[in-house]
C-alpha cells in the first residue's frame, strides 16, 4: 500500500467528548474532523468498531460480531433530528457532568432504552427516514445481518452469549429451530437490525465528511474473534474445534513478551486454516467477506496481530496462562493471494509488533504492507534497536510515539517504566538538555523520521500522564474508558501540531 508522507491522530470514537456517556458519531466527531483538518493531519485512526458489552469489559477487541457496528456510538442528537426520539427523551439520556472517563455500563443501559424507543417510532412509520432505505440495507448486508440479529436476540432471551449453553436445537442451528426462534423473537430481531441500519447510516455520513475534508479513516481488524459470537455460532466449521465437545481444544494468545511475563491468554478459538494441504474454503470465504465488508466503511485497515498469518501461538484450552503454548503454521502468502484475487489491491497496515521472525518480515515485505515502529520500544540501551529512527530501514512504515496499548508518552518517560539511565540516554539521543514538554519533543522525533506516516495518540499531543492511558494489556478491567473533555483540543495545540506537520513536509496539499 502506497502512503504519501503524512501524519494523523489516534483516537477511538468513544473517547470523543460529549453529553451522552461516551463519544458518538454526532457533532463531536464532526468537530474532531475539523480539528484534524485545521492542524494539517491526513489520517484519523480508530479502534475496532464492533459491538461491545460488559461481559468483556467493553473491550473493542472482544465483540459478539466481526461485522456489526457498535450501537453505543450512535448519536442521540441525530435520532432526535429524524424525529425518532423526543426532545425530552434526548435530555433524559444526557450526562450531568463530562469527566475524563466514561461509565459505559450506565451508557449502555441508557442507549439501549433510547434505541428501543427510536425503533418503535421507525417501525410505526414515524420520522424522516424511508422504510425502503432500511429494506435496502438489510438486503445488502444479509450475508451477516440475519445471523447477527438472531444471535443477539437469542443472547438476550437466554441471558448469555455462551451459545453452547442454549437448547441443543438452536445451538446447532437446526433449520426448524431457526425458523421458530426467528418468529418468536421477531420484534427484537428487527430492533437489532434497525440499530445496525442507524449505525452504518451515521458512520457513512461521518466518513463522507472526513474524506471531503481530506481525512482518511484508519480502522482496525482484530485477527481473532470470540467463540461466544455470532461468527462462531453461525460458522463453527471455520474454527478448530474439538469434535466431541464442540469447544476449542486450543485457544489464541501470545507468549511472554514486553507487556506480560506470563504472556497473554486471549482465549479466542483458532481458525481452521487448511483442509488437507489446501486452504479451507469456508474460512477463506468468511475472511474475504469480512475484509470486503470493512473496506466499505474504512479507508485503510490495520491488521492486528499480523504475525498470526505466518505463525500463531496455540495454547491448550486447559492451560490458565499463555506460557505453555506452541507455534503453529499460519496460512501465509496463499491467504493474501486468494483475497487479493477477489478484492484487488488491499489497503492494509501490518501490526508487526512483538517478537518477529524473518518469516513474518518477509511476508510483510513481499506483500508491500507498511509495518509499525513504536518509539517507546526504541530505548532498551541497544543502539541497533529497530525502533530507533536512525535504524528505520524503509520509508514504507508508520511511526507511533505509542499506541492504545502503551502508556502515554509522558507517563512512560516521567514514570517508573524508564530508569534514570534510560532517561539520560533518551535525552542524549534527542539532543535535549532539559526534560520539559517531553511529549512535544517525542512527537517532533517521530515527525522528522523517514517513516511515511507518523501517528500520535491524542493523549500525547495533550501531554497527559499515565492516568489517561487507554488500555493496559493483561489487565481485564478499567480499560477503554478514557475520553476527552470539551475544549481540551485548543486552537493553540492545533497550531503547534500544524507547525511540526508543515516543518517536516507532512502537510497535505492545499
Oligomer description? single chain
Strand content: 5-15%
End-to-end Cα distance, whole Å, is 23 Å
Protein structure class: alpha/beta
Strand order of the largest sheet: 11-8-3-2-1-14-13-12
Low-confidence regions: none
Can you count the helices? Answer: 18
Count the E strands.
14
**Average of the residue pLDDT scores:** 95
3D architecture notes:
- The chain is an alpha/beta fold and 510 residues long.
- Helices cover 39% and strands 12% of the residues.
- The strands form 3 sheets. Strands 11-8-3-2-1-14-13-12 form an 8-stranded parallel β-sheet. A 4-stranded antiparallel β-sheet has the order 5-4-9-10, with no helix packed on it. A two-stranded antiparallel ribbon has the order 6-7.
- Helix 1 links the parallel strand 1 (6-10) and strand 2 (43-45).
- Helix 4 (104-123) packs across helix 9 and helix 11 crosses helix 12.
- The longest helix has 27 residues, at 186-212.
- 42% of the residues are buried.
- The mean pLDDT is 95.
Summarize the helices and strands and which ones pair or pack.
Elements: E1 6-10, H1 27-38, E2 43-45, H2 76-81, H3 87-92, H4 104-123, H5 131-140, H6 142-158, H7 168-171, H8 175-184, H9 186-212, E3 216-221, H10 230-234, E4 250-254, E5 264-269, E6 274-275, E7 278-279, H11 281-294, E8 300-303, E9 311-316, E10 326-329, H12 332-343, E11 348-350, H13 358-367, E12 371-374, E13 397-400, H14 409-414, H15 420-429, H16 438-447, E14 453-457, H17 458-462, H18 491-503
Parallel strand pairs: 1-2, 1-14, 2-3, 3-8, 8-11, 12-13, 13-14
Antiparallel strand pairs: 4-5, 4-9, 6-7, 9-10
